[in-house]
Design brief:
Order of helices and strands: HHEHHHEHEHE
Helix content: 25-40%
CATH class of the largest domain: Alpha Beta
CATH superfamily of the largest domain: NADH Oxidase
Number of domains: 2
Distance between the termini: 36 Å
Largest sheet: 4 strands, antiparallel
CATH architecture of the largest domain: 3-Layer(aba) Sandwich
Structural class: alpha+beta
Number of helices: 7
Length: about 220
């Protein structure tokens, strides 16, 4: 059966787009993106996900101010030492740009997971809030990012909200039994999509046993 080249072109050109235009994104496209997320697999098909779409100025400003503060707080030392012309420096610059302009993103999509203890955690150790269902949410998040790319929209996966999650959940009225796994800013990109740069797949692949290779498939760096 022939592979769909459109799918693989999308996979190999989907990168974090942190510079977004303020132009509004139609609700129909946001719905299409979320529907792609809900097409993802989940354990026992329980679909323990929910999505909060934030487009109002107050909500975006609330989130953006805190996101930008904690981004600079957590990476303060790195920001001072990185060469802005280096590859890492360019990535950091784009992250800082996103932090400064987060409130201008047309859409903030909160990807939430129902809290549920993993099987490995014994009953006696289940104290406090359970973590959200990462195994269900991250496949949905990946579908969302791919769908945005397929529609010509820029998006990026962010998790800095962890630094102020209780305050954020109170502001947006997110119930305690749900945890926010990722917040994805979405909008039309200022730049252009292009091929991603990654280490060769064989260098990250082991065959049968850790550290073992196979010509043409696995050549792990050990």
């Amino acid at each position: 059966m022939d592979q769909d080249p459109g799918l693989f072109d999308t996979l190999h050109s989907m990168r974090a787009m942190r510079r977004l235009k303020p132009d509004p994104v139609p609700d129909a496209l946001i719905r299409k993106i979320i529907e792609a997320g809900t097409a993802a697999p989940s354990g026992q098909n329980l679909q323990r996900w929910s999505f909060l779409v934030v487009t109002d100025d107050d909500g975006k400003r609330f989130f953006g101010e805190r996101y930008n503060y904690w981004l600079r707080n957590r990476f303060a030392g790195l920001i001072e030492t990185l060469d802005p012309a280096s590859s890492d420096g360019r990535v950091m610059n784009s992250a800082l740009y996103l932090g400064e302009h987060m409130h201008e993103a047309p859409v903030l999509l909160f990807c939430c997971g129902k809290r549920d203890w993993p099987f490995v955690v014994p009953q006696a150790a289940r104290v406090g809030l359970a973590p959200p269902s990462y195994g269900a949410i991250y496949p949905a998040v990946q579908n969302i990012l791919l769908a945005a790319r397929g529609l010509g929209l820029g998006a990026s996966l962010t998790t800095m909200h962890q630094m102020f999650e209780p305050e954020m959940q109170a502001f947006f009225g997110i119930p305690e039994e749900w945890g926010v796994v990722a917040v994805i800013p979405i909008g039309y990109p200022q730049g252009k999509f292009g091929p991603v740069t990654r280490a060769p797949a064989p260098s990250k692949t082991h065959f049968n046993r850790w550290g073992q290779g196979k010509p043409g498939l696995a050549a792990p760096e050990v």
